[in-house]
Amino acid sequence: MRVTLTVRPREKPFLPIEAETIVPRNFLDGTDTTVWRGNRELPLDAVFSVSVEGNAETAAEVEVVMRGDTALIKRVGEYMDAGRIVVEGDIGMHCGNFMSGGTIEIGGNADGWLGREMRGGSIICRGDAADYCASGYRGDKKGMTGGVVEVFGSVGDFAAEHLAGGTVIVHGSAGDMAGAEMHGGTLIIYGDCTRPCANMTGGTAFVHGTAYDMLPTFRRVGTIRREGRTFIQFTGDIANRGKGNLFVGDCRYMD
Amino acid sequence: MSELLIRNACVIDPINGIDGETMDIAIRDGRIVEDVNDSTAEVVDAGGALTLPGGIDSHTHICGTKVNFGRYMSPEDMRAGRTPRMGRMHATSGYSVPTTYGTSYRYSAMGYTTLLEGAMAPLEARHTHEEFLYTPLQDTLANTLFDGNWAVMEAVRDGDTKRVAAIIGWTLSAVKGFAVKLTNPGGTEAWGWGKNVSCIRDPVPYFEVTPAEMIQTIVRANELLHLPHSVHLHCNNLGTPGNYSCTIGSLGLIPDLNDRRQTLYATHVQFHAYGGSGWDDFCSRSEPIARFVNMRPQIVIDMGQVMFGKTTTMTADGPMEFNLYRLHHNKWSNHDVELETASGIIPVLYRRKNLVNSVMWAIGLELALLTENPWQCLLTTDNPNGAPFVRYPEIIGLLMSKRYRDAEFATVHPETGHRVPLPAIEREMDWHEIAVMTRSGQAKALGVLEIGKGHLGVGAEADVAIYPIRIDEVDPSVEYQKVVDAFRCTDYTIKRGRIVSRRGECLVDGNNTTVWVRPKISDSYDMVRDEEFVRKFDRYYTVRMSNYPVQEEYLRRNLWRRNLCIETEAEL
Amino acid sequence: MIVKDVVCPFCGCLCDDVEVTVEDDRVVAVDNACTLGTSKFLGDHRLPGPIRRDGNGWKDISYDEAIRYAVDMLLDAERPLLYGWSSTHGEAQCVGVHMAELVRGVIDNTTSVCHGPSILAIQEVGHPGCTLGVVKNRADLIIYWGCNPIDAHPRHLSRYTRYADGFFLENAFRDRTVIVVDVRKTETANIADEFVQIRPGGDYAVLSALRAIVRGKTDTIPRSVSGVPREQLLRIARRCKEAKFGAFYFGQGITMTRGKYKNVRNAIELVDELNRHTKFTISAMRGHYNVYGSNEVNTWMTGYPFGIDFARGIAFYNPGETTAIDVLARRECDACLIVASDPAAHFPRPCVEHLAEIPVVQIDPYANATTAFCNVQIPVAVTGIDAAGTAYRMDGVPLRIRKVIESGYPSDEEILSRMYAMIQEVRSE
Predict the structure, then answer these.
(1) Quick check: C349 and C356 in contact, CB under 8 A?
(2) What angle do CA C227, C231, C237 make, to 5 degrees?
(3) N or C: which end of chain A has fewer CB within 10 A?
(4) How is the beta sheet containing C279-284 ordered, strand by strand?
(5) Contact present, A168 and A144 (Cβ < 8 Å)
(6) Which of A40, A219, A239 lies closest to C208 in CB terms?
(7) pLDDT tens track for C156-204
(8) What secondary structure does DSSP assign to B191-246, as a single string?
(9) Contact A174, A214 (CB under 8 A)
(10) Inter-chain residue contact C220 with A131, CB threshold 8 Å
């Protein structure tokens, strides 16, 4: 079954829409659901023109396609457990929160908190992702615990903060403090970043480019070869009892 | 004039010797009366359901600086229990430390109408009173902390019991407190230097008094002031293996000085009933403590039951919280209060698969079951330290059913059986005993029977809880789940004659009273006229003495809010 | 008439020993307060009455009309923002929270532009703190990191630290060590025993290095970290460990610079580590006199200290999304009520531009930068001068702020309560 949601023009286009109901499983029961615009609850078809093709027995057979100006639509795919969501353009904050299965593909950019506290499944973002990509929630120790987030562009600050499991792959560069507080899982950044893995206690991170403003509290262990490249290996963060592994192509300190 | 008639109530009212009698309760203008006009009074048909005086929690942390910091530092706990605004109910957040509305609504749904905040630092009392205003469905009282009070310690050192009484009396009146609380006496001052006292004979740095001297003197001072409640003690050395001997030593200091109530209320004794010399041989020592309490009518304790799951620990016992932090490595907050006390907060997860946690769970139940007289061991979790108060119904079920205890015991750490006497205890509490342990015992221990709390006799405040269960139809020993469900949510909670909560939905926006004490003290013992006291206050506090007392504005009155001052005649 | 022990409604120090001389319901002299406090007490040029924008000018309107306008604006809005709150009393803040809940708006206070990051850090690792008097009576080591109290909290040094004698410190100036850490040599640095100069953006690395040193891991530390020589780092760590009682105060030099809340978290974790060796506490130098009260009120009523979104009926909290700057910069809100703050003077330009496009009502005694963006402004009494109420000091100590003169202006609480009552009436229909 394919559900296509095309955003209708909105009178106040900057009012955010919260649409945690846009999850494949929910469409097994039809499209009679609601979303919120600010503090008003609206039927789904007040915000989207909705078309449905085919049938599905299980959520895994449902594909949701989102078209039009989706950049301010928040919480799409929250608690998603199966099926597929394809966003042709940009997507708003909190896409794929707590997701445990299925796939979300974003053609454009993703706003903050993409895949926050994700448990499983996969998210692919063809553009850039903003701050807190694959991170945790305020005050909680555990961020993402499973699944894969892959961003083909760059990510903002605090990507993979509190990472506890799963894999985060950034093909471009990361902002400041990627992998801060991480204690499990794997973070791979193909570009550059600043201050990676601050206060990490576990897990593994690779920075293929240069880590700028590298923190002085990582202990240099040696070098390794991986995927035909040489990485400098560090353990840390020794500001705590950290036993994380950080591999960087190159690094610069602020001395 | 408003009248309410509750028909067909199956009443248990231990104070008045009523044990399961089906009767009507007549209420006029908030008080229980002989009868009302049947034709005009509002009628509630209880249909034979269990009807008790409103629940009273004699030790809970619900309002004030420390509690609010528990919320402030825990957005992950806040999101764990959110409800939207509905009808007369405001939005709520939080599981282990709910917002004030969350606390009030959830307690009200469980039939609770009176709550004693367990620890209020005098300097920050205004904060507690502000939150009391937003706890709309319960009467509130505040234990006031004196464990590290410099002026008190100096007077104890000088052996001047009357001066101790005078300082306590002035402070309670100034901050609108209800009772004297000692949390790890002396230890909170030592914590000012990052140290602690290990038990009652360790001297407090600089002040050169021991916790034992403080406890003994303050207990006598409390009686000189004729306060309704006794001294409320959180013993030294909380939470460490082998601390039961310190607890027994502390209880052994207490003479029997009062014929209306106990002379000492020892709180959350579960945390103080540990044997062993370390975590490896950690075990229960509930038996010697219960035996000790059974022989001493001057002691009342509360359980401090631990239930498995997430919660937040918070106490004025700053050094203990730091030790907990070193064990758990989770977030830690601390807040020392100048010249008075300390406090600490950390989140914890009590796990069934953890041996120490399993032993702790057993100890609380053992204390209740081994204390022969239910008036001497009251039901608490030291909310939220052992568990959030919403777990009380399960504890009631466990106390009433050996079968339930055995079923739970089968799920805890397998080695627990070697370390606790619980499996061998056959006792199953009856409805009457539960009523004592959740309301009437509290009213007697707090000394609030006189203001009409904890019973349903004529003249009492009409605080009533009607639970959806018929005691003649349910065998709690077997059908414990029905008991748990019934205590989770009343059919009706009635507060001063008004229905405040109906099947969990709170119906009114406010109906509460702040209860505080004012001992009448002669001019020669009035601390405001004491030059040395005033001089030191001005020099060492960072707040002017004139700005210290909690103003009457914080006890705002309106149609449904009262301010009830209990005046006592101090022997000073 | 002289009123003694007046509480100063300027900064988070909440000094309560001010003497105010009043003549004919005017403050004519102020003693004991710093220049900042004094100028607030002597402030003049109040807006005489409510005003409404009328073309390019202003029209005087009645309080009733102004309140009606504000109520209609909030009821119509799909995403109203209720911002400010830090310079008013707690009782008014409480009404504000109830109102935000009922109109399903976003309520935020000035925390989000000053110590919001400190709160985020505390939410990750907690906060080992104490009241100011504990520091005054015990602390033999004071660290001011990224703050300049001589400018921003002038009496902090004389009441609580450098110049304040305490119970265990007979001669504070001699017995206390003061260390100042900053990116430039401030006035406070001039009165310090030791000054540590860090390269801008380098605070986090220096804090990490200090933590490692306190843990005994000195060998990994390079010769210099963000401009601070290794020897100095070792000396600072030693001084901290040898102190009997250390107190760490920090300001916007770390909360609003690169790394933000991670800087604060690192500082807190340094203090945690030091507590294994001695007694150490850490506290934020809060700015507005009652910003901490606003955090407290929000917390007991909603569970969260700032940045609360009631759009869905429940309280949702996510700074970076539900905070005023973000809501405005993303142009999410469609109406704004501003109480006791001046966002147009402090917010980034895109935020202010959005304020110009939506209806805005401001409740404030004075015409200020935000006035230019308002549709309606409602003048009120100044808490601490002509209105009384509760405020929380930077260390959490609550005080009752006094009213020293009668001005005839309504208080924030009165205006907000009237608004709330009207909104309740509409919503209950």
Answers:
(1) no
(2) 100
(3) C
(4) C194-197, C177-182, C141-145, C245-250, C279-284
(5) yes
(6) A239
(7) 999 999 999 999 998 999 999 999 999 999 999 999 999 999 999 999 9
(8) GGGT----STTSPPTTT---HHHHHHHHHHHHHHTT-SS-EEEE-SSTT-TTTHHH
(9) no
(10) no
Q: What is the DSSP letter of B414?
A: G
DSSP conformation letters of C330-358: TT--SEEEEES--HHHHS-HHHHHHHHHS
Question: Domain ranges in chain B?
Answer: 3-52+452-506, 54-450
Beta carbons of B99 and C132 less than 8 Å apart: no
Q: How many CA atoms lie within 13 A of C139 on its CB side?
A: 31
Chain A residues touching C207 at Cβ < 8 A: 239
CB contact under 8 A, C222 and A254: no
User: Cβ separation of A12 and C334 shorter than 8 Å?
Assistant: yes
What CATH superfamily classification does B54-450 receive? Metal-dependent hydrolases (3.20.20.140)
Encoding tokens for residue A143?
């961020």
Dihedral of alpha carbons B116, B120, B122, B126, sign = negative
C-alpha–C-alpha distance, residues A184 and A162, integer Å: 8
Closest chain B residue by Cα to residue A241: B329
CB contact under 8 A, C126 and B346: yes
DSSP assigned state of C113: G
The reply to whether A79 touches chain B by the CB within 8 Å rule is: no
Question: B74 CB near a chain A CB, below 8 Å?
Answer: yes
Token readout for B366 is: 């053992």
Residue B396 to residue A63: CA distance in whole angstroms: 50
Q: Using CA coordinates, name the residue in chain C closest to B126.
A: C398
> Given this chain, do its domains B3-52+452-506 and B54-450 carry the same CATH topology?
no
Please tell me which chains touch A, using 3 or more CB pairs under 8 Å as the contact test.
B, C
Concatenated DSSP letters for C42-95?
T---B--S-EEEETTEEEE--HHHHHHHHHHHHHH-SSEEEEE-TTS-HHHHHH
Q: pLDDT digit of tens for each residue in chain B (572 aa)?
A: 799 999 999 999 999 999 999 999 999 999 999 999 989 999 999 999 999 999 999 999 999 999 999 999 999 999 999 999 999 999 999 999 999 999 999 999 999 999 999 999 999 999 999 999 999 999 999 999 999 999 999 999 999 999 999 999 999 999 999 999 999 999 999 999 999 999 999 999 999 999 999 999 999 999 999 999 999 999 999 999 999 999 999 999 999 999 999 999 999 999 999 999 999 999 999 999 999 999 999 999 999 999 999 999 999 999 999 999 888 888 999 999 999 999 999 999 999 999 999 999 999 999 999 999 999 999 999 999 999 999 999 999 999 999 999 999 999 999 999 999 999 999 999 999 999 999 999 999 999 999 999 999 999 999 999 999 999 999 999 999 999 999 999 999 999 999 999 999 999 988 899 999 999 999 999 999 999 999 999 999 999 999 999 999 999 777 778 899 999 999 99
Show which of residues 258-277 on chain C sit within 8 Å of chain A, judged by CB atoms.
258-259, 262, 265-266, 269
Chains that touch C (3 or more CB pairs under 8 A): A, B
Give per-residue pLDDT as tens, C330-387: 999 999 999 999 999 999 999 999 999 999 999 999 999 999 999 999 999 999 999 9
Q: Rounded to two decimals, what is the model's pTM?
A: 0.97
Q: Do C124 and B331 touch (CB under 8 A)?
A: yes
Domains along chain C with CATH numbers:
47-114+289-428 (3.40.50.740), 116-284 (3.40.228.10)
Residue A140 in contact with partner chain B when CB distance is under 8 A: yes
Both structure tokens of A184? 């499990």
Q: Are the Cβ atoms of B124 and C137 closer than 8 angstroms?
A: no
Flag whether residue C81 sits within 8 Å of chain A, measured between CB atoms.
Answer: no
The CATH H-level (homologous superfamily) assignment of domain B3-52+452-506 is: Urease, subunit C, domain 1 (2.30.40.10)
